[in-house]
Amino acid sequence: MAKKYFLGLAITATLAAGAVFGPGAKADQNPLLVISSGTWETLRDNFRTGEVDIDYRFGTDLIWKIRPHVGLLVAGDGDYYGYGGFVADIDLTPHIVLTLNTAIGGYGGGGYNLGSHFEFRNGAELAYRFSNDWRIGAGFYHISNAGITRENGGSESALVSLSVPMPW
């Protein structure tokens, strides 16, 4: 249990360090609508199912490269998770972007039991950014209640994503 909690803290610290020390990104970007599809319960063969995730990433940096995001995932087994948190884009090259994310949210449904309705989400996405700011990428994230309840099943997802810049 503590191991997953410390993993979440490590990802959050990495996000913060990338925002402070990483290569420069645009201070204000177009907001992004991110549509992702992949597998829910990726590491559990007997529970694995499809997942669709819709994520809105705001365009204004709060501090350095850290921006808010909100989203909803729906899994093929009836699970769902609504969340809000922060993302940070780290430009590895002019076209390759590493996006770190962390969020908290509410979980429900009739599939795999994560042990709580309150869950944390931490992950990363590696994407190719086209000159018009559209992106295509692949990501992985972990959802867990960080041991705040006795049962802490956790879930991993692997996704392919399309990020569309919004004009406002």
CATH topology category name:
Porin
Q: Look at the helices and sheets and give the structural class.
A: mainly beta
The major sheet is characterized as: 8 strands, antiparallel, barrel
For the record, the count of structural domains works out to 1
Shape: globular
Notes on the protein architecture:
It contains one helix and eight strands. The protein has one helix at residues 2-21, and strands at residues 32-40, 49-57, 66-75, 80-91, 96-108, 118-129, 135-144, 155-165. Strand 1 (32-40) and strand 2 (49-57) form a beta hairpin. The longest helix has 20 residues, at 2-21. Residues 13-27 have low confidence and may be disordered.
Quick overview:
Helices cover 12% and strands 51% of the residues. It is mainly beta.
Outline the secondary-structure elements.
Layout lengths: L1 H20 L10 E9 L8 E9 L8 E10 L4 E12 L4 E13 L9 E12 L5 E10 L10 E11 L3
Antiparallel strand pairs: 1-2, 1-8, 2-3, 3-4, 4-5, 5-6, 6-7, 7-8
Q: Which features characterize this protein?
A:
1 helix; Porin; globular; 168 residues
